[in-house]
Amino acid sequence: MGAYGLVRINMELLPHAHSIFSPWLVIVGTMQIIYAASTSSGQRIGSITDTGLNGAVLQIISHGFLGAALFFLAGTTYDRIRLVYLDEMGGIAIPMPKIFTMFSIFSMASLALPGMSGFVSELIVFFGIITSQKYLLMPKILITFVMAIGMILTPIYSLSMSRQMFYGYKLFNAPNSYFFDSGPRELFVLISIFLPVIGIGIYPDFVLSLSVDKVEAILSNFFIDSFHE
Fold first, then answer.
1. What is the pTM of this model?
2. What is d(CA 59, CA 53) in angstroms, rounded to the nearest whole number?
3. How far is CA 164 from CA 88, 92, 156, in A?
4. What's the pLDDT at 90?
5. Distance (Å, whole) CA 2 – CA 67
6. In principle, which of 50, 78, 118, 170 could form an S-S bond with 112, CB 3.0–4.6 Å?
7. In this prediction, what percent of the chain has a pLDDT beyond 90?
């Protein structure tokens, strides 16, 4: 919602103000990458270019699918084990292999695994920052370096969470009547989310073709209004 608000409100209604504060937004976004990677899944930022903004739009769509799937899996898992703390979990992969498989797939997708929507959207955002003419070479290198650190820290968090939840024998050896695997309805929901994730990763032009005209219109108004100011 925050990224959508930046595009729809800041850039369209307040283009001159957005142009002035965009370097500070990049700095705050870069700091947020490290903070978010050390506490939860990472956040990404875009630049004021057609490539960067298209990547940001694609990232918003990708995050919507992946976030919905991971929250759905978290709720599904809680319904079965009735636990919320990672240090109380372990061994879920043995009694619930379907949930484990889907959780692993969407976790890898959120880590920008090639062939999935997260990878292509982050790649386009990176190209948008590198090719932007608004920033000098050293700020670009610094921003890219910090984003790379975030991309390293995020898998550490995500893989540690998966190891704590699904591996070991803590819950597998404990009697619990809620241990039953994912049913047909849950698999249908997850597969319905997974198909666009893999589709965007393989053929992102389908989504980009729907947004490219609007992105060009936003940027043209943005630069015209900024120039007049």
1. 0.76
2. 10
3. 9, 9, 12
4. 82
5. 14
6. 118
7. 16
Q: Which one, of 90, 118, 106, 101, lies nearest residue 201 by Cα?
A: 118
CA atoms of 135 and 129, how far apart (whole Å)? 9
Residues 148-158: tens digit of each pLDDT = 777 777 777 78
Q: Which residues contact 140 (CB under 8 A, 6 or more apart)?
A: 129, 130, 132
Cα 139 to Cα 55: distance, rounded to the nearest angstrom: 20
Write out pLDDT tens, residues 190-216.
999 999 999 999 999 888 888 888 777
CA 220 from chain centre, in angstroms, equals: 27
User: What are 226's two structure tokens?
Assistant: 């900024």
**Mean pLDDT computed over 88-107:** 88
Q: What is the per-residue pLDDT for 24?
A: 72
Do 92 and 166 contact (CB within 8 A), yes or no? yes
Q: What angle do CA 35, 37, 39 make, to 5 degrees?
A: 70
